[in-house]
Amino acid sequence: MKILITGNMGYVGSELLKVLRREIAGAYLVGFDSGFFAHCLTTEARSPEMNLDCQRFGDIRSLPDDLLKGMDAVIHLAAVSNDPIGNKFEDVTEDINFKASIDLARRAAEQGVGRFVFASSCSMYGFAGDEARKESDELNPLTAYARSKAATERALEVLCTDSATCMTSLRFSTACGMSDRLRLDLVLNDFVASAISTGNITVLSDGTPWRPLIDVKDMARAILWALTRDSERTGRYVAVNVGSSVQNYQVRDLADAVASALPGTTVSINTAAPPDKRSYRVDFSLYEELAPDHQPQVMLEQSIRELVSGMKALDFNDENFRSSGLMRLNTLEEHISEHRLTRELYWR
Known about the structure:
By secondary structure, the protein is an alpha/beta fold. It has a domain at about 1-175 and about 215-245 and about 280-300 and about 330-335: NAD(P)-binding Rossmann-like Domain (Rossmann fold). The chain has helices at about 10-25, 85-90, 90-110, 145-160, 185-200, 215-230, 230-235, 250-260, 285-290, 300-315, 330-335, and strands at about 1-5, 30-35, 55, 75, 115-120, 165-170, 175, 200-205, 210-215, 235-240, 250, 265-270. The strands form 3 sheets. Strands 3-2-1-4-5-6-10 form a 7-stranded parallel beta sheet, sandwiched between helices. A 3-stranded mixed beta sheet has the order 7-9-11. A two-stranded parallel ribbon has the order 8-12. Helix 3 (about 90-110) packs parallel to helix 4 (about 145-160) and helix 5 runs parallel beside helix 8. The radius of gyration is 19 Å and the shape is globular.
């Protein structure tokens, strides 16, 4: 099986490559990445890209046609990856996350690629109260990032009706867990970093917003399902919430769980904070039905343990980590300030 992975040098891709190499015998794996975060390694082991057969560098807005020829599958991870970046680079987010994604899917279909896997997000549900959101519920994207994912899903569904390509939109829960390219701009990862470096977790909201979590290892497991699912049974186009019902948490519960794992940690909650409009519980019953053999296996406690052990192995003790390159927006801003990137996120 020949597989192209876009955005392979990110937080998810670095872990995904291990799973693909281990689980798909004889796979030929090609990575395509801009290299924005190539240097952001948080491992003492070998580079994740050693699991590839070929690494290509370039901009997803101009991916060469030759990369799609002969491919059996495309796993599309490349994206402006979170709300802070999306808010700062709103036009670029639309260009990369939406326009480039649909162009890639269209060209993949024209080249006869059999599978297209899109990394989508449950953040599209926006403010949804306490009722768990199902795939059939109305979307309420509140940010540029979430709007780009919703627009791409709508376009993929239309595109799929006129092509033979099996397309899957994986609406991932909020990512967490240790990676060879760790990000700390994720709620659980941030809390662990705070606890280790300062002994305190500061919850900026009132702690009540809901977040579903999924460990990065389980994200890779879901992608593996999308590559191998029976499209005759599950449909040529599927958009599905990916996570576990037992992993719907309120933010304060996450802080308390980290504090319990690191005795002596204090938790400060801003009870006077205005309501956080990004609050959603998610229903994962469809994913349970469609992918019974690929359900999440890494629960909250294990994710915390692996983050703690991984960060301690790196001698992590940076109280100012929110100003570091482990926050993806900081890395992009440094590239721009050093005149390596343009404001449109093109390499100079």
